[in-house]
Amino acid sequence: MEVDAAYPAAAAGDELRRLLTATLSADKASVDAATAGLDRISAAGDPRFPIALLAVAAGDGDQGTRIAAATYLKNFVRRNMEGGLSSSDLYREFRDQLAQALLRVEPAILRVLIEVFGQVVVKDFVKENSWPQLVPQLKLVIQSSDAISPGQHPEWKTINALTVLQAILRPFQYFLNPKVVKEPVPEQLEQIAAEILAPLQVTFHHFADKVLLSHDGNKLEYEQLLLITCKCMYFTVRSYMPSGVKQILPSLCKDMFRVLDSLDFNSPPEDSATSRLKIAKRCLIIFCTLVTRHRKHADNQMPHIVNCVIRISKQSIHLSKLNSLSDRIFSLTFDVISRVLETGPGWRLVSPHFSSLMDSAIFPALALNEKDIAEWEEDTDEYMRKNLPSELDDISGWAEDLFTARKSAINLLGVLALSKGPPVVSAASKRKKGDKSKGKGGSCIGELLVIPFLSKFPVPSHGEDASSKAVQNYFGVLMAYGGLQDFLSERKDLAVTLIRNRILPLYYLDPCSPYLISTANWIIGQLTLCLPEAMCTDIYNSLMKALSMEDAEDVTCYPVRASASGAIAELIENGYAPPDWVALLQVVVKRISAEDENESALLFQLLGTIVDAGQEKVAAHIPGTVSNIANTITNLLPSVPDPWPQVVEQGFAALVAMVQAWDSPAPDENKEHEKSAWQLGQTAIAQTFSTVLQKAWLLPVEQMVCWQSGSQVRYLLMSVGGCAIKSV
User: Fold this and answer.
1) Whole-angstrom Cα distance, residue 726 to residue 598?
2) What whole-number distance in Å separates Cα of residue 485 and Cα of residue 449?
3) 712/690 Cα distance (integer angstroms)
4) Residue 72, Cα to own-chain centre: how many angstroms?
5) In this predicted structure, what is the pLDDT of residue 675?
6) PANTHER family, from UniProt (predicted)?
7) Contact present, 593 and 631 (Cβ < 8 Å)
8) CA distances (Å), 712 to each of 182, 266, 595, 642, in order?
């Protein structure tokens, strides 16, 4: 490489290496000085600076220095790509050297440089289509690389070449012009599919053979190659379907079926199986995409897809012993079945498996297991996120957050319950022309199969704990009811019957199982719109009992109280008012304390909801409630508010709600007793606010910070003044 003497700092490799090495120092001053030196060279405008950085990153020497060079190059390119890195000739030289370097560097350097390459690809190949040599050259490199053609070019690593292909395909996973109704496949993607992906199918089959049939020490390397190839195929078909891929789709699916059929979850997978599971995960994601986006090209593969994923799903009984990656595999199998079920031929393909799916796949994924119990104790927030989701509205669409087997099983159950088979009309029951019932299908699977199946499991008896099979199964029943929200919303009489006979009795068991009660709370919140007024007292008594449930010796009941709080808020916000506002207010206020900040934050939110909705029904109790809440907030205030804890934010929000509810005209002059009580309340509120605001705001100057809830405090300050004036 020819050196430009005008900028020796950039061209001289020794100086550049010294500065890059210094950025790795533990001494902050040395790092700052080295960074400033690199920035000066960068700002000097040396057109060969990116080439010099690349030479260090791809050359010999200390790996730390080379990673530093690659990282600086990545950031330099990101800052300067739009404005141009250098002259066109030097830029092409840099681009070609970068592509060559990617083929031989080790993984640590490749991970950084591939990001640089990705920026170049988006600009030159995807947007401007100004790199015509890229695809033919990459095709040659892949065909001649070490794992595909040993001995030809040992310096060209197949795994690196496929990683380059993956970087080129990544931008095409999204529509380039999403506003175009029927956007054609970009010509660049068609070229890649025809020249690289179609011939690569033979290699894919070879890799699959090596992974599934070989027992030599190179299996891990071939698993990595197979995984990257699967990612390339996924990026290709996620949005588009190039002609070249249509031709190889049957062969590609056949090899993916082979990989999935090799999975066995009868025992926990070993660490060495991680790559195989990642390949399986990617295959299932591809099937999801084919079924949803490219059904006309995947219809002939649909029966094989169904058989493959159902075989895996029926091993869900082992879920409690499996790791998160295995759990994700089961999640995806349920998602694939859900998508197939929503297609035209899907019902016909899946319906023969309905009973076995319920019994051997879906229900085992819903039942309580030892992993749930451990997570309940060790990470209650994570337990609630996974098992008590705030909503399951979109049961028929693809929700990106359905990443657990249980959530996907619930999703599948909801789709299954609403599905209907083709209408069956006998000759004797043919309808006359104009019959309004013509064309309607029969009963849905929820009525024919799901509800009868769940009814087989009785409500647990008194004295049964989490180790009881009855409790574990009934937990699964409750999870299933939660997934039937849309189905039950269309059949309110059935929903009411289930709540009366299958859910409310749980609150009167002795002892109450916290695992069942928390899920029962969640279901009541989900089915708010189905609840009749006649059940109001029983519903609120049950939820208030759950809200007051104390921790047992070895079991926390926080999820029970949190889910009860959420369910009560859901009822009130949907107009299902409690029969006794004051009793509910007292239960909530009694639970609020400075001991558990997370729980108090939830209760403050619930308190605000109660006061907002209750208004005059709770107004008489506001002064005393304000005093209790203010005392709790005072105890929760940190000495240095940087920032205020969430519980304090929620506490002041509850105070604002109470002030707004109290902020009404004074009683008439002729109602002396009522006016006297009102004035006393005004005075008490003003004094309480004055105390808590002094504690919150009168801090040493150096501790004063901008408070996120300044608007709430301003409202309270105005209220203090107003209360003081009105009470005079």
Assistant:
1) 36
2) 16
3) 14
4) 32
5) 64
6) ARM REPEAT SUPERFAMILY PROTEIN (PTHR10997:SF29), IMPORTIN-7, 8, 11 (PTHR10997)
7) no
8) 50, 57, 24, 17
Q: How far apart are alpha carbons 308 and 313 in whole angstroms?
A: 9
Contact 85, 130 (CB under 8 A): no
Contact (Cβ atoms closer than 8 angstroms) between residue 157 and residue 145: yes
Range of the domain at 688: 580-727
Cα–Cα distance between 528 and 514 in angstroms, integer? Answer: 21
Whole-Å CA distances, 90 to 186, 391, 471: 28, 55, 71
pLDDT in the model for residue 668: 61
Return the CA Rg of the chain: 33
Q: How would residue 690 be classed by pLDDT, with cut points 50, 70 and 90?
A: confident
pLDDT tens readout for residues 51-75: 999 999 999 889 999 999 999 999 9
Question: Can you read off the two tokens belonging to residue 505?
Answer: 């009795």
Query: Does residue 706 register a pLDDT over 70?
Result: no
C-alpha distances in Å from residue 453, one per residue of 447, 473, 593: 10, 12, 44
Q: What is the mean pLDDT of residues 345-373?
A: 93
Indicate the angle between helix axes 158-169 and 88-102, nearest 10 degrees.
Answer: 130
CB-count burial class (<10 Å; 0-12, 13-18, 19+) for 640: exposed
d(C-alpha 686, C-alpha 722), whole Å: 8
Return the closest-CA partner of residue 122 out of 167, 89, 85, 161.
167
Cα separation, 279 vs 598, in Å, equals 40
41-45, 210-214, 255-259, 634-638: range with lowest mean pLDDT: 634-638
The answer to whether residues 56 and 71 touch, using CB atoms and an 8 Å cutoff, is: no
- CB of 235 within 8 A of CB of 285? no
Nearest to 56 by CA among 76, 72, 45, 34: 72
Cβ-based neighbours of 112, under 8 Å, separated by 6 or more? 57, 67, 70, 71, 74
What does the pLDDT read at residue 64? 94
The rounded Cα 454 to chain-centroid distance in angstroms is 28
The confidence band for 360, taking pLDDT boundaries of 50, 70 and 90, is: very high
Q: What's the domain count of the chain?
A: 1
3-state class of 177 per DSSP? Answer: coil
Is 411 inside a domain boundary?
A: no
Whether residue 413 contacts residue 480, with contact meaning beta carbons closer than 8 Å, is answered with yes
Buried b (16+ CB within 10 A) or exposed e, 355-384: eebbebbbbbbbbbbeebbebbeeebeebb
In-domain check, residue 243: no
Distance between CA atoms of residues 4 and 22, nearest Å: 24
Q: What are phi and psi of 479, to 5 degrees?
A: -60, -40
pLDDT of residue 429: 42
Contact between 160 and 101 (Cβ < 8 Å)? no
Please indicate, yes or no, if residue 654 is contained in any of the structural domains.
yes
For residues 140 and 655, which has the higher predicted lDDT (pLDDT)? 140
- Tell me what pLDDT residue 204 has: 95
pLDDT-based confidence at 728, cuts 50/70/90? very low
* pLDDT for the residue numbered 649: 83
How far, in Å, CA of 660 to CA of 558, rounded?
30
Distance CA 485, CA 477 (A): 13
Query: 442 to each of 345, 423, 489, 618, 627, how far by Cα in Å?
Result: 17, 6, 18, 50, 60
Instruction: Give the pLDDT mean for 390-405.
Output: 52
Closest listed residue to residue 524, CA positions, set 487, 570, 561, 577: 570
Confidence of residue 620 (pLDDT cuts 50, 70, 90): confident
Q: What is the mean pLDDT of residues 237-245?
A: 96
pTM above 0.70, yes or no: yes
pLDDT at 432: 46
Does any domain span residue 473?
no
